Amino acid sequence: MTTMELRHLRAFAAVAEELHFGRAAARLHMAQPPLSQQIKHLERDLGVLLFERTTRQVRLTNAGVVFLDHARRVLAEADRARESVLLAERGERGEIRLGLTGVTTWRLLPRMTRAYRERYPLVRLELHPSVFSGPQTSSLLDGGIDVGILRAPVPPPLASRTIVDEELMAVLPEEHPLAARPAVALTDLAEENFVSYPAQQGSFLRDTAMRACGSVGFWPRVAQEAKDTYTVVALVAAAVGVALLPESAEELQFEGVVFRPVTGADVRVPIALAWRDGDPSPLLANFLAVAAATLPTPDTAGSNDG
């Protein structure tokens, strides 16, 4: 029965490299007799002599030469395993699954991911894009992702922190009469056809826009729905209707549309960083620390830190 231990391999490698039991014992910070016993134990276990010993020299046998190569590889792999475990314990190795929602998150992403990858190069950052916040919230709750950037509010038992607070903008065809104004009163859109996200997709942005219109006395007449922001803006450019989108959508730089601030309702569309409250993962803790440094909470926004 094999009883070979790593300490026996380290003892053998030290003697093989020093070819002197005294120097090997000093290198290993141990006395020479226990070292000799470990080598004898290893030789008994293998059933071969690893060293030729005389009063004048120590020399590897042919079997010892072959075994030294194997011993070095086993010891190197053991050292790598130990290092990997320690890195994982400190949150410096592993995987973080990051959920992303909407145009705004892609604007924020490079700044944060560059800082994180520079600080933790051995952690794999896996991105999980989704158009709507509802599926992202479900994925966080189910454990499908570790952290998400999504539209607030974030329901318990998730913890969150607001990182961006955007204004709601009216998106109009460039030839629309209201496009000439510097800002658009929400009530002036009451008779317009709207382009919106689908009602059943878990879009916080759609719900926010609908509530804003309801607060000034009308419910939007949705002429067509679209599953992503690019298509919404494209349909506005085609004069299918108008839309209410966050200011970051203007970065799509779509021809044939204009973006105008909305007046008449104090509407903000916050973006939050969200995670499972109480998650003990050191990977998550490190990620949140980098996010806090690169994406500070807006001065105008509240915090829902867990």
Short description:
By secondary structure, the chain is an alpha/beta fold. It is built from 9 helices and 12 strands. The longest helix has 28 residues, at 62-89.
Note down, in words, how this protein is organized.
The chain is of the alpha/beta class. It has helices spanning 6-18, 21-27, 32-46, 62-89, 102-119, 133-142, 204-215, 229-237, 282-294; strands at residues 51-53, 58-60, 94-101, 123-130, 147-151, 158-173, 184-185, 193-196, 221-225, 243-246, 257-263, 268-276. Strands 3, 4, 5, 6, 7, 10, 11 and 12 form an eight-stranded mixed β-sheet that branches. Strands 1-2 form a two-stranded antiparallel sheet. It has a two-stranded parallel ribbon with strand order 8-9. It starts with 5 loop residues before the first helix and ends in a 12-residue tail after the last helix.
Proportion of residues in helical segments: 40-55%
Mean pLDDT: 89
Rg is 32 Å
Proportion in β-strands: 15-25%
The total beta strand count reads 12
Order of helices and strands: HHHEEHEHEHEEEEHEHEEEH
Low-confidence stretches: 300-306
Classify the secondary structure makeup into a structural class.
alpha/beta
C-alpha geometry:
rod-shaped
For the biggest sheet, the summary is: 8 strands, mixed
Q: End-to-end distance, in Å?
A: 54 Å
**Helical region count?**
9
